[in-house]
Specification:
CATH superfamily of the largest domain: Type I PLP-dependent aspartate aminotransferase-like (Major domain)
Order of helices and strands: HHEHEHHEHEHEHHEEHHHEHEHH
Number of helices: 15
Distance between the termini: 46 Å
Number of domains: 2
Oligomer: single chain
Number of strands: 9
CATH class of the largest domain: Alpha Beta
Bound molecules: pyridoxal-5'-phosphate
CATH topology of the largest domain: Aspartate Aminotransferase, domain 2
Strand order of the largest sheet: 1-7-6-5-4-2-3
Strand content: 5-15%
Length: about 375
């Protein structure tokens, strides 16, 4: 049998990256447990769930394959039966990018709200759009779902607390799509436990800013998560030997969120600094961003240079960067080797501005790129 790894053509090129966590992850995978998680017998997975529950101040955690699965199970577990509605920001991932999962799994009506400040939902937005019980013609709001960060923008802790108090007074449940909540915490907006305390269920992703290959966690009380676990099984999300991926996820939490190797505020902070540099490069040319750069996401406004997204991406390709339009997401690995990446990006920006005005319309592109 040929065990020479170099001859395995299905393997990609390892590439190079600063802060490459593969060695640490492979070591964790090498000693993970290989038990059945459907029966909750897998130590690595049980340990990750308990660890995340403790980290966020909740009773229980449930490992799920994706952020989408976590959000959908959380919402399903919080809701009972129609008529019921979920109030959320109109740009929420649960509305725009989860393949209609809410309709499929909960039959809930979605009440998508445009925030008045253009950035995040406030108590005033919620009050204005909330549908109480007992109005026969309306669909009652039973869950308020907040995404934090949304477009990389932080909803301040104080605002979340006000909305949570409003919801609790009315017996309404709170869900947080916290796929990127780690980023708000790393930016100093509040602690994980303070934010999570405002919600009944929260999804946090291991595979975005934290850099794990797979997975998310849903946290909440044990009764709610018991329902979510049952439904996870019903939709084929019960896993037999997930230790391989939960061990890697644990490394991602500890190394990316939980550690600060250079005393500069953690690896996530590096990506925020990179995003700020990108924003500054764009602004020096006269550009603006669609929303403030609070964390690691930069939303360029391509209207000012008046370049189409297709052309912008094409210039990116010519400069060796794979761009997908106006949303640029910095990650912690773009840091030590930032000069090369940012140098290329600077050339893309310079060329985009040099071509200014040659493009026809950016609006059609912009509309197609919510996420
Ligand atoms: C805010 C937010 N929530 C949820 C998700 C869904 O995560 P997944 O792609 O793992 O389903 C994403 C994915 O980018 C996201 O950005």
């Amino acid at each position: 049998m040929n065990t020479n790894i170099e001859n395995k053509t299905w393997l990609g090129s390892a590439g190079s990256a600063a802060y490459d966590l593969r060695t640490a992850m492979l070591a964790a995978i090498g000693s993970c447990s290989l038990q059945d998680d459907v029966l909750q017998e897998d130590d690595s997975t049980n340990d990750l769930e308990a660890y995340c529950a403790a980290l966020t101040g909740k009773e229980s955690g449930l490992f799920v394959l994706s952020g989408t699965m976590g959000n959908q199970l959380g919402l399903r577990a919080l809701l009972t039966q129609p008529p019921h509605a979920i109030l959320c920001d109109y740009r929420s991932h649960i509305v725009t990018s989860e393949a209609g999962g809410i309709a499929l799994l909960t039959s809930a009506m979605v009440n998508p709200v445009i925030p008045k400040n253009g950035l995040y939902l406030t108590l005033a937005d919620v009050e204005e759009n909330f549908k109480p019980e007992g109005r026969i013609i309306a669909c009652p709001t039973r869950v308020i779902s907040l995404e934090n960060t949304l477009y990389g923008v932080i909803t301040p802790l104080e605002e979340v607390r006000k909305i949570a108090a409003f919801a609790r007074e009315r017996g309404v449940k709170m869900h947080c799509d916290g796929a990127r909540l780690w980023e708000a915490v790393a930016a100093g907006a509040g602690s994980l436990t303070d934010y999570v305390a405002c919600f009944d269920t929260v999804t946090l992703c291991f595979s975005k800013g934290l850099g794990a290959p797979v997975g998310s966690i849903l946290v909440g009380d044990s009764a709610t998560l018991g329902i979510a676990r049952h439904i996870r099984k019903a939709i084929g999300g019960g896993l037999r030997q997930p230790g391989l991926i939960t061990a890697a996820a644990r490394v991602a939490v500890d190394e990316t969120f939980g550690k600060d190797p250079n005393g500069e505020g953690g690896l996530l902070k590096h990506s925020h600094a990179t995003a700020k540099r990108i924003e500054a490069m764009w602004r020096r040319l006269g550009g603006t961003t669609r929303v403030p750069v609070d964390t690691n996401i930069v939303w360029l406004d391509l209207k000012a240079p008046s370049i189409s997204m297709a052309r912008f991406n094409e210039i990116g390709r010519e400069e060796g960067l794979k761009l997908t339009g106006e949303r640029l997401v910095a990650h912690y690995q773009i840091y030590q080797n930032a000069e090369d990446t940012l140098g290329r990006l600077q050339r893309v920006f310079d060329r985009a501005w040099a071509e200014r005005g040659n493009a026809v319309s950016v609006d059609a592109d912009a509309k197609a790129s919510i996420y």
